[in-house]
Design goal:
Blueprint lengths: L5 H37 L2 H27 L14 H30 L8 H28 L2 H30 L4 H28 L5 H11 L7 E9 L5 E10 L4 H19 L2 E9 L4 H17 L4 E10 L2 E9 L8 H15 L4 E6 L6
Parallel strand pairs: 2-3, 5-6
Antiparallel strand pairs: 1-2, 4-5
Helix pairs in contact: 1-2, 1-4, 2-3, 2-5, 2-6, 3-6, 4-5, 5-6, 7-8, 9-10
């Protein structure tokens, strides 16, 4: 399996992102105009609502394209880490617009249901517009999905899911038109209500999705693996811990980590090793990285034996827990063991309670040692 080309992904983002935005704007605007005309001519509220749904999609594409363009602006004095989060902000604005449109259509639909809506006059043109719309949306879903995977954009991949959902919505409107034309059953206002509910659901889902990176989310396992494997190419680096990735927008990630090096190395040797690791990571992933050299004792049988014991005891408390920064210090005949642990993702216990459990388990085997235990959050690898 080939390694992901993060650098190439970043170079493609702006160009393909804007191409996706333009395609979405053009096609959704055309669908809006055709559906609006068909809906007004046939007096169908559900078709008009579906047209508004396409208009919100066009607005989403416009903001997505604008967000891609702004996010590629270089860093300046006021924004030294770049403008990458503009892509997230525009996504947030899109979700708000969708929710507002959904609420307005919901109000109109409920009003029509209570007042009694006019029976629509569905024509062959209306059927043709709805049928073609479903086909166009299927094609757009395929286009968005393939493009989103190429550039690693969750926003574009979400647009693919939205396009498939639009096929279902338009299918409901088409079913309403068929029932009206074939059996004289008027459920146009109810179909409009279904469309407005879908728009609200889409807006809420988009709001949750776009707010996640702004609030802070875990980096992808793919990116973490690429960073760790690149840093560990130098055999003198014995391990990596405390990896933290800061996300300032797609293509604007920064990372810090500790590299474990034999304590027999000189300060200069350690400095050169971590500098080379920083350059390797940035060349491979495009992530600007700061690596801290962390000396560890190598070849000390007593230290190694104690460390293995501690690692085995950790499993009793949390099978998925990991440990790093293990040190043994002796003063006045008293041993102090200090180390950091990272709980497994399923472990939701408070840090203080977890530390008490670890202390209890370790003290049963090593009653005479002092313990200095630090609990790292799971987001720190």
């Amino acid at each position: 399996m080939s390694e992901p080309d993060f650098k190439n992904k970043k170079q493609k983002r702006a160009k393909l992102g804007q191409k996706t935005g333009i395609t979405g704007i053009v096609l959704n605007c055309l669908l809006f105009l055709f559906k609006l005309s068909a809906g007004l001519l046939s007096h169908s509220m559900s078709i008009v609502s579906d047209a508004v749904n396409n208009l919100t999609d066009a607005g989403s594409s416009l903001l997505t394209m604008y967000g891609f363009r702004l996010s590629m602006k270089p860093a300046d004095e006021e924004h030294p880490l770049g403008h990458g989060r503009f892509e997230y902000i525009t996504g947030l604005l899109i979700s708000v617009i969708i929710l507002l449109a959904g609420f307005d259509l919901l109000r109109s639909s409920v009003s029509d249901i209570l007042a009694g809506s006019e029976e629509p006059d569905i024509t062959a043109v209306s059927f043709a517009v709805l049928t073609v719309s479903i086909g166009v949306k299927f094609w757009m879903a395929h286009f968005y999905r393939s493009t989103g995977r190429k550039i690693g954009s969750t926003a574009v991949e979400a647009a693919a899911v939205d396009s498939l959902s639009d096929c279902v919505v338009t299918g409901v409107v088409l079913l309403s038109a068929v029932l009206n034309a074939a059996a004289g059953i008027n459920i146009d206002a109810w179909a409009s209500l279904v469309v407005s509910a879908f728009i609200l659901w889409s807006g809420w889902k988009e709001l949750m999705e776009t707010s996640r990176p702004l609030l802070g989310s875990r980096p992808s396992d793919e990116l973490v693996h690429a960073i760790l494997s690149s840093a560990m190419e130098d055999k003198r680096i014995l391990g990596i811990h405390d990896l933290v990735i800061h996300d300032y927008g797609p293509g604007r990630e920064f990372a810090t980590m500790d590299a474990e090096l034999p304590d027999s190395l000189t300060f200069r040797e350690s400095h050169l090793i971590v500098n080379e690791a920083e350059r390797r990571v940035e060349k491979k992933t495009g992530v600007e990285t700061t690596v801290h050299a962390d000396p560890v004792r190598v070849g000390d049988a007593k230290s190694d034996e104690t460390e293995r014991l501690i690692r085995n005891l950790l499993v009793i408390v949390d099978p998925g827990m990991t440990m790093h920064d293990f040190e043994i210090q002796e003063e006045d005949g008293k041993q102090t063991l200090s180390f950091d642990v990272v709980p497994s993702p399923v472990n939701q216990e408070p840090a203080a309670k977890l530390k008490d459990k670890l202390t209890e388990v370790i003290k049963k085997r090593l009653p005479d040692v002092n313990l200095v235990i630090r609990i790292d959050p799971f987001s720190v690898r």
